[in-house]
Amino acid sequence: MSALNFLKITDRKDEHLSFVKALYQSAFPVQERREWPVLLSMISSGAEMQVELVTDQEQPVAFVIWWQISDWLFIEHLAVSTAERGKNYGSRIMSHYLDAAKGNMLLEVEPPLSEEAQRRISFYERLGLYLLDYVYEQPSYRERGVVYPMRLMGTHQNLPEKPVFNNLVQQIKAKVYFI
After folding, report:
1. pLDDT given for residue 140 in this prediction
2. Shortest CA distance to 52 belongs to which of 23, 83, 87, 31?
3. pLDDT per residue as tens digits for the range 118-162
4. Alpha carbons 65 and 24: distance in angstroms, whole number
């Protein structure tokens, strides 16, 4: 099995952004993503957000958008190219970020109301994440005051019971969603 490479994209003119844009727009519904020009401006503004292209033998296979929030790694978006799904890339990519998170990771998922959402949750559970028992609403990227029901998954099952949790959610909403 070849080694994956994780390439940080720091320039809004990076040649790999056409791959990222196409996958970003096809993998996520409009309410779960930023407008492309906004994302580009964040790349060049020095925002705390990281956009990483994942390659295998120099071929793009996926991208990840993540944030370091306090001692936590928050995965905002992760998508594997349709042509590369089912080849264990998702697990390998998540293992990389779980190692980097040193046991402190959070991410959002759709509620387990559809077969696809249930499959995604099961995938993360197999990697050691827990679906947190917590009412969570994702703020809209596009419209102030609009929220979408989502769920949080994390590396600590009892995280919502810890004092740090509400502060962490507030930081995510402030940094990621500008609320």
Report:
1. 94
2. 23
3. 999 999 999 999 999 999 999 999 998 999 999 999 999 999 998
4. 10
Q: What is the pLDDT of residues 16-64, one digit of tens each?
A: 999 999 999 999 999 999 999 999 999 977 668 999 999 999 999 999 9
Domain that holds residue 132: 4-177
Encoded amino acid at 17, one letter: L
Here the tokens at position 150 are 């989502």
Number of domains in the chain: 1
Residue recorded with tokens 């703020």: 139
82: tokens are 């349709």
Q: State the CATH number of the domain containing residue 117.
A: 3.40.630.30
